[in-house]
Amino acid sequence: MPLTRAPAALAGLTVALYWGTVLHMFLRRRRSGAARVRFVPAQRLEQLLWLAWVPLIGAWLVLPWVAAGLPLGRRAWLALPGWSAGWAAGAVRMGGALLAAAALVLTLRCWAHMGRHWRMAIDPAAESRLLVDGPFARVRHPIYALGILMMLGTLVAAPTPAMLVVAGVHWALLYGKARNEERFLSGRFGAAYAEYCRRTPRFVPRAVPWRAAAPSAAPAGPRTDVGRDGSGNRGAPLTQIQRAMLHWERLHPYNAVHAVQLRGPAQPDRLAAAARAVCADVGLGHIVIDPGRGTIAHRPLGALPVTHVRVPDADAALPTLLSEQLNQPFPAGPHHPLRWSVVESAAGDHHHVLLAYRHVIADAYVTERLLEAVLRGYRGRPPRTDLPRLDTAGDVAARWLDGALRRQGTGRTLRAALRLRHEVHRRHRLKEARDGGDETRVVVRRAPPGLAASLHAFCRAQRVSLNDALLAALTVALGERTRAVGSRRAHADFALGLILNLRRGAPLDLSRYFGVALGHAILLPGDPDRPIAAVLADVARARRQQPAEGHAAAAALCFRMARLLWPLLLQPHHRRTYRRTFPIAAGLSPYVVDAERWADLRQDVLRYVRASPPGPGTPLVLAPTILGSELELTLVHRDTTRGIGSAPLLLERVVAQLAALARGSADTPVAPTFQEV
After folding, report:
1. Nearest Cα to 610, choosing from 444, 449, 369?
2. Long-range CB contacts (within 8 A, 24+) of 231-236
3. What CATH topology corresponds to 3-199?
4. Torsion over CA of 639, 646, 591 and 343, rounded to 10 degrees?
5. What would the pLDDT profile of 8-65 be if each residue is shown by its tens digit?
6. Which residues contact 545 (CB under 8 A, 6 or more apart)?
7. 620, 494 in Cβ contact below 8 A?
8. Least confident piece of the model among 135-139, 203-207, 217-221, 242-246
9. 521-561 tens-digit pLDDT
10. Is 449 helix (H, G, I), strand (E, B) or coil?
11. Which backbone phi and psi does 632 adopt, to 5 degrees?
12. Do 403 and 413 meet the contact criterion of CB atoms below 8 Å apart?
């Protein structure tokens, strides 16, 4: 092919790859059961636009190849003009073809960013979510903007009159389609979308990122709107684990919940007053998260509403209420990171206080202390004099938490991550329904009286930690349930995840740090079909070999690599992609409540229950909570999880295995150092 025709041919190939990828994504979504992905739009105006789109796409696919194949000057509407044969014109046309190719690459990254939220057109009946991060933080319609660039590159590479007409019609249709989508999103998301439109341009990104103007008069309250750099607008950078959680929120709300059962009738107004007083004392106001820049800015304290719910039986309704809090996202604009609810039984002799928090912002440690301080005011106890103001900027703490990769070394961490990925990939992955929902469900089980004390005694006698006993019980219970439902295990054993509290053992004081100080450890406990004593020995041995910070550095490195490589490999940001990469069967998120702090509240507190969110690659999480001699077990799982049968039965088998250990049925002594949860 003469070099004169090469730019038009390259542009034609780029356009063919673009629309071929669209067809591939459409067919893959249809095969996966996503029936809401429609070929013909459901909206009337979109159907009219579709009638113009179909012939336009056909012309866009054909015209560059026609221009590349016809002799110069023949059929003036379709062929390349004579002046396009020069070297200067050829260089410009090749630049246009390369511009179209670059637009294609960036569009692939946008599609990967959208994941399961990708649609070909508006469908009012389909579930939708407002995307404001990634490329959508720069412009409201990044794919349309790149489509305009691709058409411009095609026109420069194949400058024929017919191509000019197609480009003009294409740009007009894209503008109309964008305006129609904006009207639809404005009606669905209201003020949140209006604020997003105010700070984000439609097609052309700003040279300087948008910043909100400083308010003329800030409302009264503690000044918490100063970012880490001292400015009121820029905000504090999120840590690596917070950025990962923010990325996971694109799949599903990543919330956690604490629930406390109290004696007597509910008093929502008194709870709201106590919560506001404590937040003002510790300096915790509203927050604004900028997903595009990965920052969090603290704002003055605003309203703190308390939702009051009346149910016939609060205990029976607790799992459903916990599930609702886990599945309900926090607002995209300024909001408080804590969400309060009061659930009152019809009898009025007891009620539950639910505290849901956005896990991107805080962890269980700081949330438990805030909850205890609020309940003291709520129940008329004297306030704590040792309650410090929270460190919401966390400069030193954040640098230490993000320094795991630096402390362990990049090369060493990379080798550990690859080795761990290889080992984990050989473990059994629980099945997942492709056409199920993405809701989170909760099962709650109170352990028999005295079980927590018996487990403590057994663990001290055997020189193992309570974490080891919980992981061993979960492993054996998973093995029992997969056998009971006839699930064929391609691999004999499982990989389990463990959440670590990095505040303990840290070289600096993190007690005032309002943030996420958590680490991750991945354990390979071996064959789950063995007696629990043998599984416990393997778990304890694996725990001894774990570094103090777990696999925090390897997890951070894997997250960075995934963010970089998945869009280039056309891997969608979907839960199944995480599951294929790291098939973790289950996770353990333990927590021991500070019984000494809660001593004078114990006569009012009947139960303390927690619900932790499963990560994107983990189908279920066991969240045990210990308060004194009471053990509460919560199993959080996805609707799509298959291969274990009934989740309540799985939790019952975990309790049965723990009871067997507490009776001293484990006859194989192991000897790691005892470590509390």
Report:
1. 444
2. 232/297, 233/297, 234/295, 234/297, 235/288, 235/290, 235/293, 235/295, 235/296, 235/297, 235/298, 236/295, 236/296, 236/297, 236/298, 236/392, 236/393, 236/394, 236/395, 236/398
3. Four Helix Bundle (Hemerythrin (Met), subunit A) (1.20.120)
4. 70
5. 889 999 999 999 998 888 887 777 654 456 667 777 788 888 888 889 999 999 999 8
6. none
7. no
8. 217-221
9. 888 888 888 889 899 999 998 888 776 666 667 777 777 77
10. coil
11. -110, 135
12. no
Q: Examine domains 236-378 and 415-433+442-662 and report if their fold is the same.
A: yes
Question: Both tokens of residue 199?
Answer: 């700070």
Could you tell me the two tokens for 547? 């570094």
**Domain residue ranges of the chain, discontinuous segments joined by +:** 3-199, 236-378, 415-433+442-662
Identify the helix (H) or strand (E) that includes residue 114.
helix 87-114
Q: What would the DSSP string read from start to end of 9-63?
A: HHHHHHHHHHHHHHHHHHHHHHHTT-TT--SS-SSHHHHHHHHHHHHHHHHHHHH
Give burial (CB, 10 Å; 0-12/13-18/19+) of 270.
middle
Which residues have a Cβ under 8 Å from the Cβ of 20 and sit 6 or more positions away? none
Longest pairwise C-alpha distance within the chain: 94
Fold type of domain 415-433+442-662: Chloramphenicol Acetyltransferase (3.30.559)
- Both tokens of 270, joined, read 């008194």
Instruction: Write the class of the CATH domain 236-378.
Output: alpha beta
No. of H helices and E strands in the chain?
A: 19, 15
355 pairs with which residues across the strands? 258, 340
Which amino acid, one-letter code, is at 658?
A: L
